[in-house]
TrEMBL record:
Residues 1-45 form the HTH cro/C1-type domain. InterPro entries: Cro/C1-type_HTH (IPR001387), Lambda_DNA-bd_dom_sf (IPR010982), TPR-like_helical_dom_sf (IPR011990). This is Transcriptional regulator. It holds the Pfam family HTH_3. It comes from the Bacteria. SUPFAM superfamilies: lambda repressor-like DNA-binding domains, TPR-like. SMART domains: HTH_XRE. GO terms for molecular function: DNA binding.
Length: 397
Protein backbone atom coordinates (compact mmCIF):
# COMPACT_ATOMS: atom_id res chain seq x y z
CA UNK A 1 0.00 0.00 0.00
CA UNK A 2 1.37 3.43 -0.93
CA UNK A 3 1.87 6.37 1.41
CA UNK A 4 -1.02 8.17 -0.27
CA UNK A 5 -3.31 5.19 0.34
CA UNK A 6 -2.29 4.97 4.00
CA UNK A 7 -2.81 8.68 4.51
CA UNK A 8 -6.14 10.21 5.34
CA UNK A 9 -7.86 12.33 7.95
CA UNK A 10 -5.20 13.93 10.14
CA UNK A 11 -2.45 11.74 8.67
CA UNK A 12 -0.63 13.21 5.65
CA UNK A 13 1.57 11.27 3.20
CA UNK A 14 4.59 13.22 4.46
CA UNK A 15 3.78 12.16 8.03
CA UNK A 16 3.58 8.52 6.89
CA UNK A 17 7.02 8.99 5.33
CA UNK A 18 8.42 10.31 8.61
CA UNK A 19 6.98 7.33 10.51
CA UNK A 20 8.49 4.89 8.01
CA UNK A 21 11.90 6.57 8.33
CA UNK A 22 11.81 6.37 12.11
CA UNK A 23 11.77 10.15 12.58
CA UNK A 24 8.27 10.14 14.13
CA UNK A 25 6.61 7.95 16.76
CA UNK A 26 2.88 7.72 15.90
CA UNK A 27 0.32 8.24 18.64
CA UNK A 28 -1.90 5.31 19.57
CA UNK A 29 -4.82 6.86 17.65
CA UNK A 30 -2.77 7.32 14.49
CA UNK A 31 -1.27 3.84 14.85
CA UNK A 32 -4.79 2.38 15.18
CA UNK A 33 -5.91 4.17 12.02
CA UNK A 34 -2.90 2.95 10.02
CA UNK A 35 -3.29 -0.61 11.34
CA UNK A 36 -6.92 -0.66 10.22
CA UNK A 37 -5.96 0.52 6.74
CA UNK A 38 -3.29 -2.19 6.58
CA UNK A 39 -5.80 -4.78 7.80
CA UNK A 40 -3.62 -6.00 10.69
CA UNK A 41 -4.23 -6.06 14.45
CA UNK A 42 -2.79 -3.17 16.40
CA UNK A 43 -0.52 -5.57 18.28
CA UNK A 44 1.06 -6.74 15.02
CA UNK A 45 1.60 -3.13 13.99
CA UNK A 46 4.09 -2.82 16.82
CA UNK A 47 2.31 -0.57 19.31
CA UNK A 48 3.94 -0.80 22.71
CA UNK A 49 2.24 -0.53 26.11
CA UNK A 50 1.25 3.04 27.14
CA UNK A 51 3.95 3.51 29.79
CA UNK A 52 6.70 2.43 27.42
CA UNK A 53 5.10 4.39 24.60
CA UNK A 54 5.20 7.58 26.69
CA UNK A 55 8.86 7.04 27.54
CA UNK A 56 9.70 6.34 23.92
CA UNK A 57 7.73 9.37 22.74
CA UNK A 58 9.60 11.61 25.20
CA UNK A 59 12.93 10.16 24.11
CA UNK A 60 12.00 10.86 20.49
CA UNK A 61 11.06 14.45 21.32
CA UNK A 62 14.35 15.03 23.12
CA UNK A 63 16.30 13.46 20.26
CA UNK A 64 14.61 15.72 17.74
CA UNK A 65 15.27 18.77 19.92
CA UNK A 66 18.96 17.89 19.92
CA UNK A 67 18.88 17.46 16.13
CA UNK A 68 17.22 20.86 15.69
CA UNK A 69 19.79 22.54 17.94
CA UNK A 70 22.61 20.94 16.00
CA UNK A 71 21.09 22.04 12.70
CA UNK A 72 20.81 25.61 13.96
CA UNK A 73 24.41 25.58 15.20
CA UNK A 74 25.54 24.44 11.74
CA UNK A 75 23.62 27.19 9.92
CA UNK A 76 20.44 25.27 9.18
CA UNK A 77 18.12 27.67 10.97
CA UNK A 78 15.27 27.34 8.45
CA UNK A 79 15.17 23.56 8.88
CA UNK A 80 15.48 23.95 12.65
CA UNK A 81 12.54 26.37 12.82
CA UNK A 82 10.29 24.06 10.81
CA UNK A 83 11.18 21.10 12.99
CA UNK A 84 10.80 23.06 16.23
CA UNK A 85 7.30 24.31 15.34
CA UNK A 86 6.17 20.70 14.94
CA UNK A 87 8.06 19.64 18.03
CA UNK A 88 6.41 22.26 20.25
CA UNK A 89 2.94 21.16 19.13
CA UNK A 90 3.68 17.48 19.69
CA UNK A 91 5.30 18.04 23.09
CA UNK A 92 2.28 20.10 24.17
CA UNK A 93 -0.16 17.42 23.05
CA UNK A 94 1.80 14.75 24.96
CA UNK A 95 1.96 16.83 28.11
CA UNK A 96 5.76 17.04 28.00
CA UNK A 97 5.79 20.61 29.30
CA UNK A 98 9.52 20.90 29.90
CA UNK A 99 10.38 19.68 26.41
CA UNK A 100 7.79 22.04 24.93
CA UNK A 101 9.35 24.93 26.87
CA UNK A 102 12.89 24.16 25.72
CA UNK A 103 11.74 23.71 22.13
CA UNK A 104 9.84 27.02 22.28
CA UNK A 105 12.90 28.82 23.62
CA UNK A 106 15.06 27.31 20.89
CA UNK A 107 12.44 28.35 18.33
CA UNK A 108 12.52 31.94 19.59
CA UNK A 109 16.31 32.01 19.29
CA UNK A 110 16.08 30.47 15.81
CA UNK A 111 13.62 33.14 14.67
CA UNK A 112 16.23 35.63 15.84
CA UNK A 113 18.78 33.97 13.54
CA UNK A 114 16.30 34.21 10.67
CA UNK A 115 15.50 37.89 11.35
CA UNK A 116 11.81 37.14 11.94
CA UNK A 117 11.05 39.53 14.82
CA UNK A 118 7.27 39.16 14.69
CA UNK A 119 7.46 35.38 15.02
CA UNK A 120 10.13 35.66 17.71
CA UNK A 121 8.00 38.10 19.68
CA UNK A 122 4.96 35.81 19.51
CA UNK A 123 6.92 32.84 20.87
CA UNK A 124 8.49 34.89 23.66
CA UNK A 125 5.07 36.28 24.69
CA UNK A 126 3.72 32.74 24.95
CA UNK A 127 6.71 31.72 27.03
CA UNK A 128 6.25 34.70 29.35
CA UNK A 129 2.74 33.45 30.17
CA UNK A 130 3.81 29.80 30.47
CA UNK A 131 3.28 28.37 33.99
CA UNK A 132 6.74 26.80 33.80
CA UNK A 133 8.28 30.24 33.23
CA UNK A 134 6.49 31.68 36.22
CA UNK A 135 7.63 28.80 38.42
CA UNK A 136 11.33 29.68 37.95
CA UNK A 137 13.09 33.01 38.51
CA UNK A 138 15.78 31.95 36.06
CA UNK A 139 13.32 31.25 33.26
CA UNK A 140 11.32 34.40 33.91
CA UNK A 141 14.49 36.51 33.89
CA UNK A 142 15.69 34.83 30.70
CA UNK A 143 12.45 35.41 28.81
CA UNK A 144 11.98 38.99 30.02
CA UNK A 145 15.55 39.88 29.02
CA UNK A 146 15.00 38.41 25.56
CA UNK A 147 11.80 40.45 25.17
CA UNK A 148 13.73 43.57 26.19
CA UNK A 149 16.47 42.90 23.64
CA UNK A 150 13.92 42.30 20.90
CA UNK A 151 11.91 45.41 21.77
CA UNK A 152 15.05 47.54 21.60
CA UNK A 153 16.01 46.08 18.24
CA UNK A 154 12.58 47.14 16.93
CA UNK A 155 12.82 50.67 18.33
CA UNK A 156 10.27 50.06 21.09
CA UNK A 157 12.43 51.61 23.76
CA UNK A 158 9.91 52.19 26.60
CA UNK A 159 8.84 48.56 26.23
CA UNK A 160 12.50 47.50 26.29
CA UNK A 161 13.03 49.35 29.57
CA UNK A 162 9.96 47.78 31.18
CA UNK A 163 10.91 44.26 30.16
CA UNK A 164 14.54 44.72 31.22
CA UNK A 165 13.45 46.03 34.62
CA UNK A 166 11.23 42.95 34.99
CA UNK A 167 14.18 40.73 34.09
CA UNK A 168 16.43 42.38 36.67
CA UNK A 169 13.73 42.08 39.33
CA UNK A 170 13.26 38.40 38.55
CA UNK A 171 17.02 37.76 38.73
CA UNK A 172 17.54 39.74 41.94
CA UNK A 173 18.14 36.63 44.03
CA UNK A 174 20.75 35.23 41.65
CA UNK A 175 24.45 36.00 41.85
CA UNK A 176 26.71 37.44 39.16
CA UNK A 177 27.83 34.00 38.03
CA UNK A 178 24.34 33.27 36.72
CA UNK A 179 23.82 33.84 33.00
CA UNK A 180 20.35 35.21 33.65
CA UNK A 181 21.68 37.83 36.11
CA UNK A 182 24.16 39.06 33.51
CA UNK A 183 21.80 39.05 30.55
CA UNK A 184 19.13 40.93 32.50
CA UNK A 185 21.52 43.71 33.51
CA UNK A 186 23.05 44.02 30.08
CA UNK A 187 19.56 44.39 28.61
CA UNK A 188 18.76 47.07 31.18
CA UNK A 189 21.97 49.04 30.52
CA UNK A 190 21.37 48.91 26.77
CA UNK A 191 17.74 50.01 27.13
CA UNK A 192 18.57 52.91 29.45
CA UNK A 193 21.42 54.04 27.18
CA UNK A 194 19.24 53.86 24.07
CA UNK A 195 16.53 55.90 25.84
CA UNK A 196 19.07 58.56 26.86
CA UNK A 197 18.45 57.73 30.53
CA UNK A 198 22.17 57.91 31.12
CA UNK A 199 22.20 58.33 34.90
CA UNK A 200 20.27 55.11 35.44
CA UNK A 201 22.37 53.40 32.77
CA UNK A 202 25.47 54.38 34.74
CA UNK A 203 24.03 53.04 38.00
CA UNK A 204 23.16 49.72 36.38
CA UNK A 205 26.58 49.55 34.74
CA UNK A 206 28.38 49.95 38.07
CA UNK A 207 26.62 46.82 39.33
CA UNK A 208 28.03 44.70 36.53
CA UNK A 209 31.49 46.28 36.24
CA UNK A 210 32.06 45.84 39.98
CA UNK A 211 31.54 42.10 39.45
CA UNK A 212 33.17 41.80 36.03
CA UNK A 213 35.52 39.01 37.11
CA UNK A 214 32.58 37.03 38.49
CA UNK A 215 30.76 36.91 35.15
CA UNK A 216 30.64 33.33 33.89
CA UNK A 217 31.93 33.72 30.32
CA UNK A 218 34.30 35.81 28.23
CA UNK A 219 31.37 36.72 26.00
CA UNK A 220 29.45 38.30 28.86
CA UNK A 221 32.55 40.14 30.07
CA UNK A 222 33.10 41.42 26.54
CA UNK A 223 29.51 42.58 26.21
CA UNK A 224 29.80 44.38 29.55
CA UNK A 225 32.89 46.25 28.32
CA UNK A 226 31.08 47.12 25.10
CA UNK A 227 28.08 48.43 27.06
CA UNK A 228 30.40 50.59 29.18
CA UNK A 229 32.02 51.98 26.03
CA UNK A 230 28.62 52.84 24.54
CA UNK A 231 27.74 54.76 27.70
CA UNK A 232 31.01 56.73 27.59
CA UNK A 233 30.24 57.70 23.99
CA UNK A 234 26.69 58.69 24.90
CA UNK A 235 27.95 60.93 27.72
CA UNK A 236 30.44 62.66 25.41
CA UNK A 237 33.64 60.89 26.49
CA UNK A 238 34.67 58.80 23.46
CA UNK A 239 38.33 58.65 24.53
CA UNK A 240 37.30 56.72 27.64
CA UNK A 241 35.53 54.20 25.42
CA UNK A 242 38.66 53.21 23.47
CA UNK A 243 40.33 50.92 26.05
CA UNK A 244 36.99 49.30 26.83
CA UNK A 245 36.41 48.53 23.15
CA UNK A 246 39.90 47.07 22.87
CA UNK A 247 39.20 44.84 25.85
CA UNK A 248 35.85 43.84 24.36
CA UNK A 249 37.58 42.87 21.11
CA UNK A 250 39.91 40.55 23.04
CA UNK A 251 36.95 38.88 24.74
CA UNK A 252 34.76 38.67 21.61
CA UNK A 253 37.08 37.25 18.92
CA UNK A 254 35.91 36.65 15.34
CA UNK A 255 36.22 32.89 15.68
CA UNK A 256 33.34 32.79 18.16
CA UNK A 257 30.94 35.14 16.33
CA UNK A 258 32.16 36.87 13.19
CA UNK A 259 29.16 39.16 12.76
CA UNK A 260 29.29 40.32 16.37
CA UNK A 261 33.01 40.96 16.02
CA UNK A 262 32.41 42.98 12.85
CA UNK A 263 29.73 45.07 14.54
CA UNK A 264 32.12 45.74 17.41
CA UNK A 265 34.81 46.74 14.91
CA UNK A 266 32.42 49.21 13.26
CA UNK A 267 31.61 50.71 16.66
CA UNK A 268 35.34 51.02 17.29
CA UNK A 269 35.87 52.88 14.00
CA UNK A 270 33.11 55.34 14.91
CA UNK A 271 34.83 56.04 18.22
CA UNK A 272 38.23 56.37 16.56
CA UNK A 273 36.78 58.98 14.21
CA UNK A 274 35.82 61.00 17.28
CA UNK A 275 39.26 60.64 18.87
CA UNK A 276 41.63 61.45 15.99
CA UNK A 277 42.93 57.92 15.53
CA UNK A 278 45.51 57.68 12.71
CA UNK A 279 43.91 57.27 9.30
CA UNK A 280 45.89 54.11 8.53
CA UNK A 281 44.45 52.36 11.59
CA UNK A 282 40.94 53.47 10.67
CA UNK A 283 41.33 52.23 7.09
CA UNK A 284 42.68 48.87 8.22
CA UNK A 285 39.90 48.23 10.73
CA UNK A 286 37.25 49.46 8.31
CA UNK A 287 38.58 47.22 5.55
CA UNK A 288 38.40 44.20 7.84
CA UNK A 289 34.85 45.13 8.83
CA UNK A 290 33.79 45.52 5.20
CA UNK A 291 35.17 42.08 4.37
CA UNK A 292 33.46 40.46 7.37
CA UNK A 293 30.11 42.02 6.51
CA UNK A 294 30.46 40.81 2.92
CA UNK A 295 30.34 37.28 4.34
CA UNK A 296 27.95 37.48 7.30
CA UNK A 297 26.48 40.99 7.39
CA UNK A 298 22.81 41.85 7.12
CA UNK A 299 21.27 44.67 5.12
CA UNK A 300 21.08 46.68 8.35
CA UNK A 301 24.80 46.13 8.96
CA UNK A 302 25.62 47.37 5.49
CA UNK A 303 23.58 50.56 5.96
CA UNK A 304 25.52 51.40 9.11
CA UNK A 305 28.77 50.56 7.33
CA UNK A 306 27.81 52.95 4.52
CA UNK A 307 27.37 55.82 6.99
CA UNK A 308 30.81 55.27 8.51
CA UNK A 309 32.48 54.84 5.12
CA UNK A 310 30.86 58.06 3.90
CA UNK A 311 32.37 59.92 6.85
CA UNK A 312 35.84 58.45 6.26
CA UNK A 313 35.75 59.27 2.53
CA UNK A 314 34.58 62.83 3.18
CA UNK A 315 37.47 63.41 5.58
CA UNK A 316 39.82 62.42 2.78
CA UNK A 317 38.15 64.92 0.45
CA UNK A 318 36.71 62.17 -1.75
CA UNK A 319 33.27 63.73 -1.90
CA UNK A 320 31.92 61.97 -4.96
CA UNK A 321 32.49 58.57 -3.36
CA UNK A 322 31.38 59.86 0.05
CA UNK A 323 28.09 61.17 -1.30
CA UNK A 324 27.46 57.90 -3.07
CA UNK A 325 27.86 56.01 0.21
CA UNK A 326 25.68 58.55 2.03
CA UNK A 327 22.92 57.80 -0.47
CA UNK A 328 23.02 54.17 0.71
CA UNK A 329 21.81 55.18 4.18
CA UNK A 330 18.15 54.22 4.14
CA UNK A 331 15.70 52.07 6.14
CA UNK A 332 16.54 48.37 6.17
CA UNK A 333 15.02 45.26 7.74
CA UNK A 334 16.35 44.79 11.25
CA UNK A 335 17.72 48.33 11.57
CA UNK A 336 16.19 50.00 14.65
CA UNK A 337 14.86 53.50 13.93
CA UNK A 338 17.09 55.17 16.52
CA UNK A 339 20.16 53.54 14.93
CA UNK A 340 19.00 54.57 11.45
CA UNK A 341 18.72 58.10 12.82
CA UNK A 342 22.37 58.06 13.92
CA UNK A 343 23.42 56.94 10.44
CA UNK A 344 21.26 59.65 8.86
CA UNK A 345 22.99 62.30 10.95
CA UNK A 346 26.35 61.06 9.68
CA UNK A 347 25.00 61.12 6.12
CA UNK A 348 23.69 64.67 6.64
CA UNK A 349 27.14 65.93 7.63
CA UNK A 350 28.64 64.39 4.50
CA UNK A 351 25.91 65.80 2.26
CA UNK A 352 26.33 69.30 3.66
CA UNK A 353 30.11 69.15 3.30
CA UNK A 354 29.73 67.80 -0.23
CA UNK A 355 27.56 70.68 -1.40
CA UNK A 356 24.16 68.98 -1.21
CA UNK A 357 22.60 71.17 1.46
CA UNK A 358 18.99 70.26 0.69
CA UNK A 359 19.74 66.56 1.02
CA UNK A 360 21.63 67.21 4.23
CA UNK A 361 18.68 69.07 5.72
CA UNK A 362 16.33 66.28 4.66
CA UNK A 363 18.50 63.61 6.29
CA UNK A 364 18.88 65.64 9.46
CA UNK A 365 15.15 66.32 9.70
CA UNK A 366 14.32 62.63 9.27
CA UNK A 367 16.86 61.72 11.96
CA UNK A 368 15.27 64.18 14.38
CA UNK A 369 11.81 62.78 13.64
CA UNK A 370 12.99 59.21 14.24
CA UNK A 371 14.57 60.16 17.55
CA UNK A 372 11.32 61.81 18.59
CA UNK A 373 9.28 58.79 17.53
CA UNK A 374 11.39 56.41 19.61
CA UNK A 375 11.48 58.64 22.68
CA UNK A 376 15.20 59.43 22.56
CA UNK A 377 14.59 63.07 23.34
CA UNK A 378 18.15 64.12 24.17
CA UNK A 379 19.35 63.03 20.74
CA UNK A 380 16.20 64.42 19.13
CA UNK A 381 16.99 67.84 20.61
CA UNK A 382 20.56 67.59 19.33
CA UNK A 383 19.32 66.70 15.83
CA UNK A 384 16.81 69.57 15.76
CA UNK A 385 19.51 72.01 16.87
CA UNK A 386 21.75 70.71 14.11
CA UNK A 387 18.97 71.18 11.59
CA UNK A 388 18.33 74.77 12.71
CA UNK A 389 22.03 75.47 12.28
CA UNK A 390 22.07 73.94 8.81
CA UNK A 391 19.05 75.95 7.68
CA UNK A 392 20.54 79.16 9.07
CA UNK A 393 23.88 78.49 7.40
CA UNK A 394 22.18 77.79 4.09
CA UNK A 395 20.19 81.02 4.37
CA UNK A 396 23.38 83.05 4.81
CA UNK A 397 24.86 81.78 1.56
Amino acid sequence: MSQSELAGGEVSPSYISLIESGRRMPSEEIAQAIAERLGVPLSEFGVVPPAQANADERADLVRRLVVARSARAEGGSAFAAEELVTLVDEADSLGEDDVAWEASWELAETYGDLDQPVDRDAVLRRLLDDPLTNSSIRLRARVAAAIAELAQSRGRLPEAVRAAEQAVAAAAELDASALEWCRARLALIAAYTACDDLDRAGDALHDILDRLDELPTDRLRGLACWAAADLHVATGHPADAVPLLERAAELLPPRTDLRQSARLALTTVRVWLATDRPADAVDERLGWTRHAFSMVGTEADRVQLAAVEATVLARKGLFEEALSRADDVRPAPGLPPHELAESLLAAAEVQMAGGRAADGEKSCRRAAELFDETGTHRRAARAWRTLVGLVAERGER
